[in-house]
Amino acid sequence: MTGFWAIYRRELWALWVTPVAWILLTTFLLLQGGVFYSIVLHFSGATELSFDNGPIESYFGQGSIFLLMTLLLMCPALSMRSFAEEQRSGTIEPLLTAPVRASAIVLGKYLATFTTYLLMWSPTLLYPVILRGTGVVDPWVVASSYLGLALLGAAYLAIGTLMSALTKSQLAALMLSVLLQFGIFVLGVGEYIFEPGPLHALCSHVSMLSHMEEFSKGIVDLRRIVFDLSLVILALFVTTEVVDSWRWS
User: Fold this and answer.
1) Which value, in Å, is the radius of gyration of the alpha carbons in the chain?
2) How many Cα atoms are found within 13 Å in the side-chain-facing hemisphere of 136?
3) Distance between the two ends of the chain, CA-based, in angstroms?
4) Distance CA 127, CA 172 (A)
5) How far is the C-alpha of 17 from the C-alpha of 112, rounded, in Å?
6) Which of 97, 116, 158, 178 is the least buried, fewest Cβ under 10 Å from its Cβ?
C-alpha cells in the first residue's frame, strides 16, 4: 500500500519523540508494578497455589480492576493526537494532497499507536519470568492473557482513532474516547445485574471484565475475538471514510 510504511514510521517517531509516550509509559509501569507487587504480596501468604487461581490469573483477571481501568485511559491518551493534532496544526493538508490513499493514512497511524501500546506492555513480560520459580506459571495462560490485552487494546485504539478524526481538539478526542469506552464497560457490568436472557447475554458478550477473566484462565473464545476485530474494522472503516471526505470538502 503506497505510503503506508512512510506514514507508519513518521507516526511512530512522532509518538516517541514527544514527552506524552514517555510520561504514559512511566506512569503505566509504576501503576502496574504496584498492582503486581500487591498481588504477589497477597499470594505469598497463601498456603497453596493452583493454575486456576494464581498471581498471573489474578493480575490479568477480575482480581486486578486497576489493569482494566488503565486501558480506559491509556488507549484514548495514545490515540487522541492521531488526527486531531494534524487538523489543528494544518499538517493534514499536505498529507491529503499526497498520492496516498486514505486507508493507508488511517492504517499507518493506527498501527503506529498499536505498536506503541504493545511496546508499553512489553516490560510486564518480566512478571511471569519473576514468578517462574514458583512453579505456578502456565505458558498458555500467559499467552492467552496477553492476547486478550492485545485484542482489547486494538479495539479501544481503533475507537480512539475514530474520535480523533471527528474533532480538532486532542482533549475532546480524549474525552469522547473515554466516554464511549466507559459506556461499553458499564454495559458489560450489566451481566452482574440482569437475569439470564437476551439482555444478559448482550452485556456478557461485550463485558471487558468477562473478556479478561476468560483469557486470564487460558480460555480463548472465538466470539470474543470476532467482537474485538469487528470493532476494529468498523471503527477504522468509518475513520477512512471521514478522512477521505476531507479531500472533497
Assistant:
1) 19
2) 19
3) 24
4) 35
5) 13
6) 97
- Residue 28 makes CB contacts below 8 A (sequence gap 6+) with 70, 74, 120
Q: What is the DSSP letter of 53?
A: S
Distances (CA, A) of 187 to 92, 158, 199, 215: 35, 19, 10, 19
pTM of the model: 0.90
| 75, 78, 82, 85: CA torsion to nearest 10 | 120
Q: Do 137 and 218 touch, CB atoms closer than 8 A?
A: no
**For the chain, how many residues are written?**
249
Question: What distance in Å separates the CA atoms of residue 231 and residue 243, rounded to the nearest whole number?
Answer: 18
Rounded CA-CA distance 157/235 in Å is 9
pLDDT score, position 51: 47
Cβ–Cβ < 8 Å for 43, 54 = yes
Selection from 29, 151, 20, 28 nearest residue 77 by Cα: 20
C-alpha 159/C-alpha 210 separation (Å) is: 20
> Mean pLDDT in each 10-residue stretch from start to end of the chain (249 residues)?
80 82 84 82 62 72 71 87 82 78 90 93 87 73 90 94 91 92 85 81 83 85 90 95 82
C-alpha 140/C-alpha 17 separation (Å) is: 35
Grid coordinates 486494538 are at which residue?
Answer: 154
Quote the CA–CA distance of 243 and 98 in Å, as a whole number.
Answer: 13
What CA–CA distance (Å, rounded) separates 73 from 177? Answer: 9
The per-residue pLDDT for 161 is 94
Q: CA-to-CA distance for 75 and 165, rounded, in angstroms?
A: 15
Cell 490469573 belongs to which residue? 57
Q: How far apart are CA 29 and CA 109, in angstroms?
A: 24
